[in-house]
């Protein structure tokens, strides 16, 4: 007889999915993993850009400071304090 068994669909038998978990739970876990991986892969380049941008600004500031120091040396080439600063 069909449908009279212990595990018929009428009596709430659940389909099992990944690792024996209910199919709905397995689907939610897989979707959550995909979302986390997607967010992680889009945030990484942004963080790297921020770090490189800060490094570039720092380097530019050093160049501007050296430029100012060498202008001082050019205006007074025998001042040892300006030469040491440059």
Q: Could you explain how this protein is built, in words?
A:
The protein has 86 residues and is mainly α. The chain has helices spanning 23-75, 80-85.
What's the alpha carbon Rg, rounded to whole Å?
34 Å
Q: Enumerate how many helices there are, as a single number.
A: 2
User: Sheet bearing the most strands, described?
Assistant: none
Low-confidence stretches: none
Could you say which structural class the secondary elements and strand pairing correspond to?
A: mainly alpha
- Fraction of residues in helix: 55-70%
* Tertiary shape: rod-shaped
One letter per element, helices H and strands E, the order comes to HH
Q: What distance separates the N and C termini?
A: 96 Å
Mean pLDDT: 80
Number of strands: 0
β-strand amount: under 5%
Short characterization:
With 86 residues, the protein is mainly alpha-helical. The protein has 2 helices and no strands.
Task: Give the helices and strands, then pairings.
Elements: H1 23-75, H2 80-85
What tags apply to this protein structure?
mainly alpha, about 90 residues, single chain, 2 helices, rod-shaped, about 70% helix
């Amino acid at each position: 007889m069909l449908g009279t068994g212990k595990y018929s669909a009428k009596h709430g038998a659940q389909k099992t999915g990944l690792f024996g978990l209910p199919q709905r739970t397995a689907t939610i876990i897989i979707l959550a993993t995909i979302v986390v991986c997607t967010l992680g892969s889009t945030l990484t380049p942004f963080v790297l850009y921020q770090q490189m941008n800060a490094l570039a600004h720092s380097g530019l500031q050093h160049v501007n400071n050296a430029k100012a120091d060498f202008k001082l040396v050019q205006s007074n080439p025998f001042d040892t304090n300006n030469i040491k600063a440059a």
